[in-house]
Amino acid sequence: MRKRKCIAILVLQGLLEIDKNPRGKTRSWIRKRESRGFYTNIVRELMVEDTAAYREMMRMSYDDFKVLLRVVEPHISPHQVQGGQKVIPAPERLTLTIRFLATGETYRSLCFQFRISVAAISYIVKEVCEAIVKHIGPLYLKVPSTTEEWLEIAAKFEEIWNYPNCVGAIDGKHIVMQPPANAGSFFYNYKHTHSIVLMAVAGPDYECIYADVGTNGRVADGGVWNKCSLSKSIDDGTISLPSARCLPFGVTKIPYLFVADDAFALKPNVMKPYPQQSLTEDKRIYNYRHSRARRISENLFGIIANRWRVIRGIILLPPETIESLIMAILVLHNYLRKSISSKASYCPVGLLDTEYCNGRFVQGLWRQESMSESLLPLSVSPTGHNASNNAKLVRETLKDYFFAEGSVDWQWNFC
């Protein structure tokens, strides 16, 4: 044990001191950051000379970057000069962090680009992500708190995806990471990797309306939703969904609900598809309509994996830093999805799944990139879940509605 600690200390000292010369001073090439650094030369040039390339590099327009900077600058600006060296200004700190999230490059690679030490990058990224979550998150990633807000989401689901009483699509992914020292099997998951779980609820326009990240990968996937704060708040009445209502032309009231895949338990407010064995025509119709609504959660994860590539590999950071990093990505995703100047470049044509008016489905470009080694799906329980009769009745009511008065013309061609 003592030997391991000694090795860890030596490695840490190496990371902290590698950017210094033998006399303990900052290396000369790092001190030239202000005149020759990546931000000073490339970034500032793109701001003025090639705005399209700036959007590609930063995932946003310079105008949107300035809005972000205005909010977080007071919280990421250094307050004093240390060791006689000039401090790294807030615009460069924010640029560095966004570039790290967008590319997933190592701190060592960013060190050579930005001429900033690895040790400085490590705390800058953490500090900026925390500032984004704390000060921008409440504006762009918040759970609906009123009946009117839930009803607005449900109306969009029914209008766009033809699924009534739906207020979100639930999905979860394992974020693969390097386990901390002495963690043992605490983060070990069913795919024989180490991970923490991201549980998210997608809205009708591919936005994230709720996220919970941090559950260790060893926890059974079926129980992650039950343990997250949104599920608990709904169960104890802290967050109240709109009152149950009848479907059009119906007489049975059904609750407002979330759609999910087979990894989740069937509940009155969580619907999942019918098992694939011995499906009748009406059950195939229901599964198709259910899949259309739930597909938005797949696209949400597809977008963030395509645009924020740090999560496509094994993240070599502590779990608490990864939590801030993932939440910052979701906040930035919602911010850019609502932006007029950045939305088109953030989600270019063809990136998302496309469905035409006749029901023809074209897969988005994000599906061409395998996420098998980065965002792992939740495992499906081999024994199934013991659903209540009430939950089964809600699904039966929806099935009958989709098969009759709630049918759409093209559904018969896909079942």
From TrEMBL:
GO cellular component, one term: nucleus
Annotated Pfam families: DDE_Tnp_4
Keyword Endoplasmic reticulum belongs to the record: no
Compartment(s) where it occurs, according to its Swiss-Prot or TrEMBL record: Nucleus
Gene Ontology MF: a single term: hydrolase activity
Cofactor(s) it depends on: a divalent metal cation
Coiled coil regions in record: none
Keywords recorded for this protein, A-Z: Hydrolase, Metal-binding, Nuclease, Nucleus
Stretch forming the signal peptide: none
Keyword Hydrolase in record: yes
Family, similarity comment: Belongs to the HARBI1 family.
Name used for this protein in its record: Uncharacterized protein
